[in-house]
Amino acid sequence: MPRTVEWVGGAVRIIDQTALPVELKYVDLVSPEEVAEAIRTLKVRGAPAIGVTAALGVALAARDCADTAVSDKALAAIRLLGETRPTAVNLSWALERMRRALELSVGEGAGSVRQRLLREALDIAEEDKRLCERIGVNGERLLKDGDTVLTHCNAGALATAGSGTALAVVYAAVRGGKRIRVIADETRPLLQGARLTAWELVARGIEVTVICDSAAAWMMKQGRVNCVLVGADRVAANGDAANKIGSYSLAVAAGEHGVPFYVACPYSSIDLSLRDGTCIPIELRGEEELASFFGRRTVPQGARIENPAFDVVPNRLVSAIITEKGVLAPPYDGRLA
Ligand code: MRU
């Protein structure tokens, strides 16, 4: 798999995910403003990948400025990048690590501050890669040979600096010799499932079927889904899990049909400071994402449009949370910490 995000000496190189699956296009971001714009417009997206990219954006800000301005520029970048997307806690988690690294460098020369910031950002990326592997290894035992996994949005390599979260579980199972099929929800309105998850799985030679979001419950009703496996943008202390809009409907449908609903995420997606999912900020995105389809207006002028990008799956609908530490079954309250 090509690298979703990497440091290429003076630039943050990302895959422009808005161009997939038609074109595999790399973009070099050379300023924190460009990094912020790439995150806001979902050129780079997925909770862990956003955190890694933002951290590299801070290192970038400290690099291209006068020696006397390093701290101010880094702090300004932390503020700018922190405002790009509200739901994925990995973003504020990674930026907080960068802020602490900056604090630790007080009194050091500009060169060593720059080095420290870059090292921290690269550590975050490396750590994410290892976390993905562990999530895969821990989660794969939930899958049986011959299983069909339904997933939503993209929680794969394109959403992380490694092999993914939910899809890392699939990859580990396949590596272990299990035959796994994937059903990928299209994931309206930006089609991360159809464009990104299907692209990733095809590239790895894993059988994938794309369905429109509203077909998921019907697939379950027909007994064609062994489990639902999704990532998360933020998990509250009680196990309520925010993920791409549509995850809640999937969880309700899974509960109705007795299909296990699994959430896979690293510790950087868990926000123990929030009691429950009602405290998770939900990103509202622009009307234009819904108003037209492939350049053609599909909603009449005058109709109101609402576009929440995430929803929250209540803990009672989550059969297990898979992290780098292991697999946790309910109850989560208190035990997640
Ligand atoms: O709006 P996106 O594409 O950034 O939303 C991403 C998701 O909802 C993913 O499922 C989530 O970040 C988990 S990624 C490992």
Any descriptors?
337 residues; Four Helix Bundle (Hemerythrin (Met), subunit A); Rossmann fold; 2 domains; seven-stranded mixed sheet; 10 helices; binds 5-S-methyl-1-O-phosphono-5-thio-D-ribulose
Q: Can you offer a commentary on this structure?
A:
The protein has two domains: 5-133, translation initiation factor eif-2b, domain 1 (Four Helix Bundle (Hemerythrin (Met), subunit A)); 138-328, 3-Layer(aba) Sandwich (Rossmann fold), CATH 3.40.50.10470. The chain is built from ten helices and 16 strands. It has helices spanning 32-40, 47-63, 70-82, 89-104, 110-139, 166-175, 192-203, 216-221, 247-257, 288-291, and strands at 5-7, 12-15, 26-29, 148-151, 181-185, 208-211, 227-230, 234-236, 241-244, 261-264, 270-271, 292-293, 296-297, 310-313, 320-323, 326-328. A seven-stranded mixed beta sheet has the order 6-5-4-7-10-15-16. A hairpin with a 2-residue loop joins strand 15 (320-323) and strand 16 (326-328). Helix 2 packs antiparallel against helix 5. Bound molecules: 5-S-methyl-1-O-phosphono-5-thio-D-ribulose. The site of 5-S-methyl-1-O-phosphono-5-thio-D-ribulose has 20 residues, from helix 2 and strand 9.
Structure in a nutshell:
With about 325 residues, the chain is α/β, with parallel strands linked by helices. Helices cover about 40% and strands about 15% of the residues.
